[in-house]
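agent> fetching stored inputs for the calcium ion docking request
agent> found them:
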Amino acid sequence: MGRGSLALLGFVAGCTDAPDMPPLPHSVSIVLETDDEQVVSLLAAVEPNDRGRLDVRVSEGVVLPGGGRVVLVTPAHGGWAVGGALTGRRVPLSLPTSAWRLARVRGGHLWFSGDEGLQRCEMATSTCLPTGELPPGPEVQAAGPELGFRVTLDDDGNVFVLLPHHDGAGAGERVASDVRRIVSVRWLVDAPEPRIQEYLDRTFRGRADFLAPDLDVVVDGRLSEWGEIEPAVVDAPWQAEVRDGWNGPDDASFSAALAVDGDALCVAGRLRDDRRLDGDAVVLSLEGELFTVPVARHSATTSVRAEWFGWRYEACLPGLAAEIDEDTPIVLSYRDADGQGLASVIATSPSIGRWAVGRVERLP
Ligand SMILES: [Ca+2]
Ligand SMILES: [Ca+2]
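agent> prediction call returned; pasting tokens
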């Protein structure tokens, strides 16, 4: 099943590459320092012809995918260390983590800042020396940026990625908030080798943001009124809360879009499940509070309608619209009961921390 087939529409108008459009890079890797001094790595696959959107994934710490390897910058025995993710080899730097924060990655060098100034470390030799200034950032690599790709941090701490098919409109797509600085940006031109892709799939978890426009919703399982509202599609290993508990899109996958109707927050999408049981539910987590939408049958607030590969569901939750302001933390999950043991869960943001949670914003 293709990624787009859980979209609300059968065919979604995608961006059309102009004949002379150069190939897109495969992905962009961004390392950020958040407002609360955590370091977070993002990985966004740039997928042409898939609604022109970025799939943003998140990992803790500094994970730097490159052509043939993945470099990790991690604490080890109280000090910083640099090494390869696949080799397990770590080389310690002479900088205690209590005194130095990673400030920039550029080429083969790392910059750390602390009360005692700045240090510049060479990855190859693991030697660190005091230095006078931080190089300008973010780092930009490969052909992408010259062709209209850009990563920016605005004054409000939002990071945006601009792609050519955004047609230069605004700053592009927001991929992170509550950011103090961008430590590193790398454009990966080619698809990673399979063993590296496998590592990245295991390490990075999904994260999706939503916009909730005003909409007149009729809860009947017909989704025509949802028009071109973009759903999040959840059907990949990096969207499973526990990867071993999920057997692929046929076991469970779903899409979800949000809208506001009066005082209600409405959710709709498509659903696949090989065994649909009473415990199956779409679960909405709004600022950490859980709201369950059972989807095994109709209810007063939910409509479920079979279609050729699964179901369409549609529900409105009264009173929840007031909970949404411009940046409300949100996760939409599908709890797949399957009858044995614990339910498996797939989610728009299978959280590994506060900053890995998606956000919802009301469209004016
Ligand atoms: Ca409807
Ligand atoms: Ca299932």
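agent> quick read of the result: The first strand starts at residue 27 and ends at 34.
agent> awaiting further instructions
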